[in-house]
Amino acid sequence: MGKRKRESANAIKEARKEQNFAKLKNVPTSPRKMRLVADMIRGVEVSKALGLLHYSTKHAAKDVEMLLKSAISNWEQKNGRKAEDGELYVKTIFVDCAPMLKRLRPAPQGRAYRIRKRSNHVTLYVDTFNKTSKDA
Q1: What is the C-alpha to C-alpha distance for residues 108 and 104, in angstroms, rounded to an integer?
Q2: Closest among 132, 124, 126 to 46, alpha carbons compared
Q3: For a tag on the chain, would you pick the N or C end, based on fewer CB atoms within 10 A?
Q4: pLDDT 10s digits, 42-88
Q5: What is the DSSP string of the chain?
Q6: 124 contacts 90 by C-beta, under 8 angstroms
Q7: What is the CA radius of gyration of the chain?
Q8: Domains of the chain
Q9: What are the Cα distances from residue 9, in Å, to 3, 14, 88, 92, 124?
Q10: CB neighbours (10 Å) of residue 33?
Q11: Are 63 and 24 in contact (CB under 8 A)?
């Protein structure tokens, strides 16, 4: 690894230490369905987001709820204190495609239809309201 590449990698690592996030990989749900759930909670306060996810009828909401609880726990562990109501919010959440399983289904007249079983990766960042007001 070259010097410039190593320095930029170290800068990225240092910036990441200050961010609080959680990742969920290889979720067997299509990214399109997961993005509908992600759009519901983007920019919302954590306690309200947990309520939205808990009472949502979407199947993907259970996975995102578990991920959000993990991100809150990561924040608490990094800061050494419990999260209070109204302090945290979902800063960023995004859904990326993961490898898909390709299967074949028999079709009439000797043909075959391709079945694509999609999966995704979800990344969720939480942040405090106070931190953003100091920067502004």
Answers
A1: 13
A2: 126
A3: C
A4: 999 999 999 999 999 999 999 999 999 999 999 999 988 898 888 89
A5: --HHHHHHHHHHHHHHHT-EEEEEEEESS-HHHHHHHHHHHTT-BHHHHHHHHHT---THHHHHHHHHHHHHHHHHHHHTSPPPTTTEEEEEEEEEE---EEEEEE-GGG-EEEEEE--EEEEEEEEEHHHHHHH-
A6: yes
A7: 19
A8: 21-135 (3.90.470.10)
A9: 10, 9, 28, 22, 21
A10: 15
A11: yes
CA–CA separation, 126 vs 92, rounded Å?
7
41, 64 contact by CB (below 8 A): yes
| Rounded average pLDDT over 19-44 | 96
Give the tokens for residue 114: 């391709």
**Phi, psi at 107, each rounded to 5°:** -130, 165
- pLDDT at position 83, please? 87
pLDDT tens, residue by residue, 89-104: 999 999 999 999 999 9
Nearest to 60 by CA among 41, 75, 82: 41
